[in-house]
Amino acid sequence: MCRHGGNWSTRVIEPGLLGKVLWVLGIIAWYIIRYPFQRRAKRTKTVHRMRSGSEIIGLGSALLGLGILPGLYVATGFPEAAGHPARYWLVIPGGLVFAMGLATFRWSHKALGRNWSITLEIREKHRVVCSGPYRFVRHPMYLSFLLMGIGQAMLLPNWISGMAGVVGCAVLFFLRINKEERMMQDGFGPEYAQYMKRTKRIIPFIY
Ligand code: SAH
């Protein structure tokens, strides 16, 4: 009789490794989506820029939580003491949540077009975008970070590195949101005020 090598768990990718592979693929996709917008942003003139200490802390927290800490975990397993068992029932939906985050990320970039920037800026010929995902919420890109953060927590079985994404994007969101909305109101007056009346921040009908 011919026996196929190994039992079920050795033939199928185990959940810990599957989560890491999906996270790495997600980060590569994230970079591929962002790259053309980053290049174009360099060529688009800025007429008003808000650079402050809290912007650096916010962006640094997001980078640490969604990039550096999980990357370190995937590469080395650090911090081992915070590890917990990996489970398929978390990893598989985690991959789907991360993919939803990526789709929202791409959709927001496409809708924002030349108005996109990594920090708070008003560009030359800037206009208020209220199409695509901006029909439903004012900050779909921050919603996409939150979805990726939740996906990451489900993909990586580590209390610190897994959860760091949600914490990092919450820090960015709460440090930035009032300033961003004030900047848009100062720049666009009633147009943005009207838009604010029609939409919620990140969760349609709720918040
Ligand atoms: N907060 C938005 C956009 C993040 S990118 C989101 O989460 O989807 C940050 C830049 O987007 C800021 O510099 C701001 O000028 C610009 N911005 C934010 N909302 C906008 C809108 N509705 N229309 C045009 N530009 C917008």
Features of the shown structure:
mainly alpha; Four Helix Bundle (Hemerythrin (Met), subunit A); elongated; binds S-adenosyl-L-homocysteine
Summarize the structure.
By secondary structure, the chain is mainly alpha-helical. The chain has seven helices and two strands, in the order H-H-E-H-H-E-H-H-H. The mean pLDDT is 94.
3D structure, described in words:
The structure is a single chain. The protein has 207 residues and is mainly alpha-helical. The N and C termini lie far apart (62 Å). It has a single domain, classed as Four Helix Bundle (Hemerythrin (Met), subunit A). It is elongated and about 60 Å long. The chain has helices at residues 8-11, 15-43, 53-76, 88-112, 140-155, 159-188, 190-198, and strands at 46-50, 120-123. It contains 7 helices and 2 strands; from the N terminus they run ααβααβααα. 29% of the residues are buried. It has a two-stranded antiparallel ribbon with strand order 1-2. Helix 4 packs antiparallel against helix 5. The longest helix is centred in the C-terminal third of the chain and has 30 residues, at 159-188. The mean pLDDT is 94. It binds S-adenosyl-L-homocysteine (SAH). S-adenosyl-L-homocysteine binds at residues 108, 112, 115-117, 120-122, 128-129, 134, 139-142, 180, 184. S-adenosyl-L-homocysteine is lined by residues 108, 112, 115-117, 120-122, 128-129, 134, 139-142, 180, 184.
